[in-house]
Amino acid sequence: MAELLVSAPAKINLHLEVLGLRPDGFHELAMVMQTLDLADRLSLRPTADGRIALHCNRKDLPTDGSNLIVKAAELLRARVGLPELGVAIELDKRIPIGAGLAGGSSNGAAALVGLNELWGCGFSQRQLLAMAAELGSDMPFCIDGGTQLCFGRGEVLEPVALEQPPALAVLLIKHPQASVSTPWAYGRCREQRGDFYLQNEAEFEQRRALLRGAPLLAALRGEAPLPRLRNDLQAVVEPEVASVREGLALLREAPQALAVAMSGSGPSLFALFADAAAAETARAELAEPLAAAGFEAWVCRCTGSGATLV
Ligand code: C5P
């Protein structure tokens, strides 16, 4: 095989509820995640020198063993037990870095999917999902993608039954200099809301059941108006991060916006619209204040799959 291309799409959280603390120190979550058509591209070329070499068009992104692509490649190679396998990976980065859009997790997921094919490992989707869960809470979702309920640390997936991806269009914004540490956001959440966390599995399951029947899911099927979105980390981050406050205030001014929220632990923010034309109109109307405040903006569609061979 000469070269393999893999698409690694971004996600947003349409719902992020912190239920409680788990014995492993992570938070028990109930989320709805959605893949977007904003994607990085990995090109994989097999080598026979046993090296895993990563290059990226963004020079500020670490390409050493801390990168989830390299971690994914090393894990896959260890599991298949062939240390002589090598690969040269080119990463074309389009998803903003450190944004709460799962760019890094999606890159790792794409590496698992692509190298499984390139190296002929023959792992099943289930085995890939299990390896993904070892590497990061969001990574299993990034393998399957689409519209899913995500429970546990985020790795327990339940697809939302939809005939097609939600018709909603997304105006996504991110300040290039803003960043939010995910462990910090969860830590602050625990400090501020820990006394109100649910305490046991029965209580967690009650919340999961509520989310399975929530108006949000009917809205994603196009059967009901979009309700207000919930992201418990937004309640923690918005008061403390000026660019998140500023960006949300701008998006709330967007004409025809159906809902506005932060994605993941931030700092990227989004507004939802009935269609791409409405999202483009809002982007045009907000172009000046967004540029003045230094935000980058993208108009995206919802898609139905995660990391995919191109
Ligand atoms: O799994 P991942 O590496 O994405 O998690 C990053 C950090 O976010 C964890 O170290 C933890 O501090 C926090 N986290 C959490 N509960 C989750 C997911 C992440 O507390 N369910």
Structural commentary:
- The protein has 310 residues and is α+β, with helices and mostly antiparallel strands.
- It folds into 2 domains: 4-160, Ribosomal Protein S5, domain 2 (2-Layer Sandwich); 169-301, GHMP kinase, C-terminal domain (Alpha-Beta Plaits), CATH 3.30.70.
- 35% of the residues lie in helices and 27% in strands.
- The protein has 10 helices and 12 strands.
- The strands form 2 sheets. Strands 1, 2, 3, 4, 5, 6, 8 and 12 form an 8-stranded mixed β-sheet that branches. The protein has a 4-stranded antiparallel β-sheet with strand order 9-10-7-11, covered by helices on one side.
- Strand 3 (52-56), helix 1 (68-80) and strand 4 form a beta-alpha-beta unit.
- The mean pLDDT is 97.
- It binds cytidine-5'-monophosphate.
- Cytidine-5'-monophosphate binds next to strand 2 and helix 5.
Total DSSP E strands: 12
Q: Which small-molecule ligands are present, each listed once? A: cytidine-5'-monophosphate
Secondary structural class: alpha+beta
What is the CATH third-level topology name of the largest domain?
A: Ribosomal Protein S5, domain 2
Helix content: 25-40%
Q: What is the beta-strand fraction?
A: 25-35%
Question: Mind describing the biggest β-sheet?
Answer: 8 strands, mixed
Instruction: Count helical runs.
Output: 10
CATH architecture of the largest domain: 2-Layer Sandwich
Q: pLDDT average, as an integer? A: 97
| Total domain modules | 2
SSE order in H/E notation? EEEHEHHHEEEHHHEHHEEHEE
CA-based gyration radius:
19 Å
